[in-house]
Amino acid sequence: MGSKKAVKNSSSSNNKKSVKVKASNKKFKGGKNKRRETVPKLIKPKIKDVEESEESDYGEDMLDMVEEEDLAFLKTAIANKSYSLLKNVKFDKSKGQKRKLQDEEEDDDGDDLENDYESQLKPTKVVKNLLPIKTNKGIVKRSVEQDEVDEPEEEEEEQMEESYIDDENEDTGDDDDDEGMYVFNEDGIDKSVPVSAAQMLSNRNETLRQKKIYIGNLSSIILENPEENILNLRLLMKILDDDTPEVYVTVRKLAIVALLEVFKDILPNYNLKLQDITETKVKKDTLKQHKFEETLLSSYKKYLQHLEKFMYILHRKRGDARVFSEGEINVAEVAVHAMCDLLVSHPYFNFAQNIVQTIVPFLNNPNKNVRQLVAAACKTVFKEDKREEITLKVMRAVNQYLRNHAHNVNADMLEVFLALRIKDVNLDQEKEHDIKEKKLNSKKGNILRLSKRERKKGKMLKELEKEMLETKAEESKQMKHHNLTEITKILFGIYFRILKSSNNTKVLGACLEGLAKFAHCINLEFYVDIVNVLDKLLKEDWLGYRENLNCVRTVFSILGGQGEILNMDPTRFYKYFYQDLLCTTAGRTHNNMEIVFSALAEALLNRRKKITNKRLIGFVKRVTTLALQLLHNGSIGALSFVKTAFQLNSATDILLDLDNSVGDGKFDPHLEEPEYSGAANTALYELTLLAKHYHPIVAKYAVHIANGANSAKEGATLPMEYAKCTMEELFEKFDMSEMAFNPPIRVPKQVQAKARPERHEFANEDFKRMCYKKLKYEKSNEAFFIGIK
């Protein structure tokens, strides 16, 4: 027994080692930016000595040194085959003393335990299913029996090593030096020691603070001298893979934003073209610049790959039922924002095509914030693109996505097209230019016969000029016009496919709105087909009110430009427009007034010489009635149209005549035809109500129109700042979306109510005497009852 005790004490003293790690052990050394950490030292227990002692005693005296609780634990572990539970075993000096002999029942239990353990070690047969074989008789299933493979002994030893870690405070007894120190095991803080919530929060804040300082130092060092410190980008990249459970979400956000600002500052505005210089001799400065550009491109590529990995959490495929935390979704949104910002700030740098291919599918994302981010980036690119190259890439990516999804997408993807800068584009100009160039080259070939050397020299000069233009971020007018032509072809190809096949009202509405805006760029040969398609759409019952307005607006925008030469009667479209005017109210449909104002300008003001006076008068009466049921900005826009109609056509003055004795019928507001509604036989009585409107500008417009839209009369003058504005400008200028009036409305004065008059006037004397007689009778009865009381 003495030898056993010596063996045990020697093994326990050799195995007990612990690690002290300070809470603030995250400082940086010098300029290397490396974190100093102390790794816990693991001491292997002397397994051989334990085995020898067990063999010498045959397990008889070992049970005497084991407590009842440990013995029960070993029983359950062996029965459940869960030897990994031994990790939770902690050494304690108080439990290392020698125990007295136990009863014979415990010895029997020890023998049974040993027998059970040996039976567990015997190899068991496991049936493994193999792939079936298809024969003439059918499918034959196969299986094979094999011994169960246990875990390697090395892994068990490693697991044992990880569990044998003790606290050094018990051995040394130095309590004064342990302030601010924590004992770590393989997972961090020792789980056997309770930790308060305040301590956990302070540890998290300290870790986050150190990470922020680390990211800030690296970013500032790179921005101070990018060429010398470009390798620090790789250290920043490693932070994107940080998996610290408490702070990884915040740290990844900070790293993404920091790298975004660094790349926005150091990336050039042109495309880098790296050449292989391994076999050529170059100067030191050239080699240094080449390494800098190579490192920059590789780091930028890795950064985009990380962003793409984070982003695709939001882009799920069918059947993907994974659940992501709110923190991961926030990181994905930050990644989308970073990639969009890179496209806007450096659209001509490398990997711009890859960025476009990545962000375009997010225009159809269910997350509204993500859609708005990508849509805003695309609109900004469309407005700021001078070469129209990146715009063409975006259009091609959107076109391909729409083809793959059969145009069943969110309307935001098509609303992006409204920001395109397409003014005067002739789709046939490219063919005409090619024909002229071929003729000119043939004439040159007949007159001048150049040698092969001269022709080769000419090609090289053209390529050199093209590269010089690229470095200056400029392009020739011909190339820009070519890109615009391609963009226009793709745009109208998308619109025409949607008109033919799509039944989605929102997508169709966005398509019609785009057609109305860019109708002046359509070839003349397509006008008749488009008008016929729109006429069929207006007869459909599933089409909404806003889509009807867009159809009418598109038709009149087509007929107002090059379509004037078409021999077409648009009476049916005036009828549709007149019917739908009063459907707009101050509620949800009030935003449709922008389309109404554009259609009024195209259908009536621009075509005033091609419509009859009765049709114009009918629309003026209907629009004045419409002004009564709108918000003040819509009412101002409607009255602006009425004022312009009075100034352009004197026939509308009849609406200010209140004499109804002369005319050719009665006014019928329910009639669907504006020409036959008889609006000339009525007057604009709505101006009386609008003159008392709560908004002063509406009241001024109403008084101005009631005086014949003549500013010379007293009290009918209209401020010039409002008189020169169009309907759309007035609608936007007096918009109340920010909950503020323009101009501010004064608070009404408090008026005291006047006293009621005591005297009464009677038209009939008999009725007067009867009333007075009744009043006297009631007063006498009232006095009688008061006296009784």
Automatic annotation (TrEMBL):
Residues 210-303 form the Nucleolar complex-associated protein 3 N-terminal domain. Signal peptide: none annotated. Residues 1-16 have a biased composition (Low complexity). Gene3D superfamilies: Leucine-rich Repeat Variant. It is found in: Nucleus, Nucleolus. Keywords: Coiled coil, Nucleus. Residues 51-60, 103-117, 146-176 have a biased composition (Acidic residues). Residues 1-60, 93-120, 142-176 are annotated as: Disordered. Residues 549-702 form the CCAAT-binding factor domain. Residues 17-35 have a biased composition (Basic residues). InterPro entries: ARM-like (IPR011989), ARM-type_fold (IPR016024), CCAAT-binding_factor (IPR005612), Noc3_N (IPR011501), Nucleolar_cplx-assoc_3 (IPR016903). PANTHER family: NUCLEOLAR COMPLEX PROTEIN 3 (PTHR14428), NUCLEOLAR COMPLEX PROTEIN 3 HOMOLOG (PTHR14428:SF5). Belongs to the CBF/MAK21 family. This is NOC3-like protein. It comes from Nicrophorus vespilloides (Boreal carrion beetle).
